Amino acid sequence: MGSWEVWKVEILSAAYPPPHLNTYNLLVLTVATKESEGFRRFKRSAQFFNYKIQALGLGEDWDGDKETSAGGGLKVRLLKKALEKHADKENLVILFTDRWVPGGFLGGGQHVWGGELAEVGGRLATLAVMEPCPCCSLSPSFLQERINITLDHRCRIFQNLVGALDEVVLKFEMGHVRARNLAYDTLPVLIHGNGPTKLQLNYLGNYIPRFWTFETGCTVCDEGLRSLKGIGDEALPVVLVSVFIEQPTPFLSLFFQRLLRLHYPRKQLRLFIHNHEQHHKAQVEQFLAEHGGEYKSVKLVGPEVRVANADARNMGADLCRQDRGCTYYFSVDADVALTEPKTLRLLIEQNKNVIAPLMTRHGRLWSNFWGAMSADGYYARSEDYVDIVQRRRVGVWNVPYISNIYLIKGSALRAELQQTDLFHHSKLDADMAFCANIRQQDVFMFLTNRHTFGHLLSLDSYQTTHLHNDLWEVFSNPEDWKEKYIHENYTRALAGKLVEMPCPDVYWFPIFTETACDELVEEMEHYGQWSLGDNKDNRIQGGYENVPTIDIHMNQISFEREWHKFLVEYIAPMTEKLYPGYYTRAQFDLAFVVRYKPDEQPSLMPHHDASTFTVNIALNRVGVDYEGGGCRFLRYNCSIRAPRKGWTLMHPGRLTHYHEGLPTTKGTRYIAVSFVDP
């Protein structure tokens, strides 16, 4: 015995109920054995127009095959029984929508309720029949002449989406939204979307009736919320957070930092991590060693276990499904940059069975959702996709596909989604299989773009051939590169609020984080091929260096392109601020990291730089990593003896700023130097 439910019927889409319905009582009858999300949408659309709904068969078992059976007579029996109860009522108009127009929405017409009058139970009622599907054989003349029923072939009341997807569009007008039939220029009242048109029905249901308009925005986004305000930490719902590292992924350290920043008590979070990559094994284990004890529980499935992607995702979902104390399942892929700490709370508060926050790739229309699907089940662009991605339309959207990050109610995993193999479906990838299975169970997937939650990383060009591979991601993932490597006070410096001038025309400001300094030094030491510090140098044009240092050039580690990008994005704007009237494209012949040691090369003789201006970034800390060091500008008899780690000196290179490197007396000092605009 199964259950039979309505979920395709659909939208009352008119701006206002028909005026002449005031002389009748309208009763909308439908058949539904349980309350699905589609059925609730149908009721909400009817309530919008104050239409009375009566659902027949709620709570009853359905013993027919809902895809192939004509209902086993159940809906006919239920309808007949209901009509008998109303046989003696005057001026009653009954609108019946059966299982083939399930869970949807009505949209009251303006002037199209008039039809042929037929006698039912001895009383008069207005009757009309939906335009038949292509397989139907009843003719309009037969219906009209034999049984006094009008066929709505111009879609004045009923709109069948099958075979008419290109004919039905949204009509926005003066704060209202309707479905419009382009073929007949009519405004249908009830939209019928069965079979392959259910997804288009869901799209229309994001707007009709007046759920979203350009004037009002989303009018239903705050309905049915689950408030977490005033709830103590120990009373908050328990959430299973599942992390999936399925391929080499940049900025994994940032991912874990952002996970720790979630505004949710870790003692109410269970943690499941599937790490498929040996490359990330040490990072994952370090994170768990430092923070694993802060969570309610932790389960790690590492690369040595060799669990496939879909199987790992099934494993994570089933952990929540089997745990009655698991209220929510929060799945997050490692390529998600979750920059909004309140994301988990915001998703819970929306109170949906399945919901995802919008994530997009930097500078692209690539996102973690599809607004539509092609006939063969792959991506298709919906009319509103770009507006949703760019947040020109803000709301909570019913969509056919989500990925990368989503929240599922534990109760849904134990009911509608109780199948233990959510992530396999035919030959589809795990994410497409997941969505196909959810759609098959008539569970809606929602996407919210009500807040800026974060973004998706680009993994296309990520290489793992270096010691610190994130350094090379300045092109592919510039936002994350900036967060990890650019000093938190750089923006203040650019605004002129944190720039010092310790010597004439020598500017000093923060540029690198400690991580940037450490990783650049470690990368150079890992490469290890330091120059000898003599005048002969085959790395430069002419092969002779007037003022040699012990160094490694950026091009030796294939970093010159990334370094130039850094100079253009972060040094050039400062140059134009600090040297008004001078504009640079940040060209350089030489960019390198210098190493000073007392027993190797402690200092540097007085010299001019072969540059218009020079950038000199301190990569470690005086008094901790080394003693001594610094820079002296001879013409001004001005010295900077305590360079700050991550801060840069910027000064003219030729003519005026003759300078020397002061002796390093203990430890090892590292600086990154660029001769800009030679």
UniProtKB/TrEMBL annotation:
Its EC number is 1.14.11.4. It is a peripheral membrane protein. Keywords: Dioxygenase, Endoplasmic reticulum, Glycoprotein, Iron, Membrane, Metal-binding, Oxidoreductase, Signal, Vitamin C. The keyword Cytoplasm does not apply. The keyword Signal applies. Its cofactor is Fe(2+); L-ascorbate. It holds the Pfam family GT_PLOD. Gene3D superfamilies: q2cbj1_9rhob like domain. It comes from the Eukaryota. It is an enzyme of class 1 (oxidoreductase). It is found in: Rough endoplasmic reticulum membrane. It catalyses: L-lysyl-[collagen] + 2-oxoglutarate + O2 = (5R)-5-hydroxy-L-lysyl-[collagen] + succinate + CO2. Homodimer. Identified in a complex with P3H3 and P3H4. Part of a complex composed of PLOD1, P3H3 and P3H4 that catalyzes hydroxylation of lysine residues in collagen alpha chains and is required for normal assembly and cross-linkling of collagen fibrils. Forms hydroxylysine residues in -Xaa-Lys-Gly- sequences in collagens. These hydroxylysines serve as sites of attachment for carbohydrate units and are essential for the stability of the intermolecular collagen cross-links. This is Procollagen-lysine,2-oxoglutarate 5-dioxygenase 1. The lineage of its organism: Eukaryota, Metazoa, Chordata, Craniata, Vertebrata. The gene is PLOD1.
